Amino acid sequence: MKTVVMATDTPPTPPRTPEFFPQHDDGGSVVLERRKQKLQPPPMYQVVMLNDDYTPMEFVVWVLQELFGKNQEEATRIMLKIHLEGRGVCGVYSRDVAQSKVEQILMAAQHSGHPLQAVSEPVQ
Ligand code: TYC
Question: Which of 29, 46, 95, 119 has the fewest beta carbons closer than 10 A?
Fold first, then answer.
């Protein structure tokens, strides 16, 4: 007979991976080996802004304040780092939030007619 699951029922819990699993050693006996914990924290992504020769410094400082919550001093420090070194980290987020920040930068830049570029990349 088929088991009918109603949409209102709480779904059955999936079987848990046993923490210990049987292994056969060379002598024919069975030993229990502890499984390695497999769960890793989700990878974090950094939003990196790139330098160019045309975007005004004031616009970059504004982006860092409006989209990344930096104060004037910190925003100016990051902008100058990008200007001098070619790139700089604006913030570190989960993958989706980082990608959304990149899109917001690109939209703001396009809207204002600036060629400002940004990317997100996994934190090493
Ligand atoms: N290099 C730009 C200028 O001299 C300023 C700038 C800084 C542009 C940071 C982009 O991500 C950037 N106007």
Answer: 29
Domain 54-122, CATH number (from 3.60.15.10, 3.30.420.40, 3.40.1390.10, 3.30.1390.10): 3.30.1390.10
Given a cut of 80, is residue 115 above it in pLDDT? yes
Domain extents for the chain? 54-122
* Whole-angstrom Cα Rg for the chain: 25
- C-alpha 70 to ligand 1 mean position (Å): 17
pLDDT single digits (tens) 68-84: 999 999 999 999 999 99
Residue 60 · residue 88 · CB < 8 Å: no
Atom of ligand 1 nearest to the CA of 87: 11
pTM: 0.75
64 lines ligand 1 (CB under 6 A): no
pLDDT digits (tens, 9 = 90+) for 24-69: 567 777 766 677 788 999 999 999 999 999 999 999 999 999 999 9
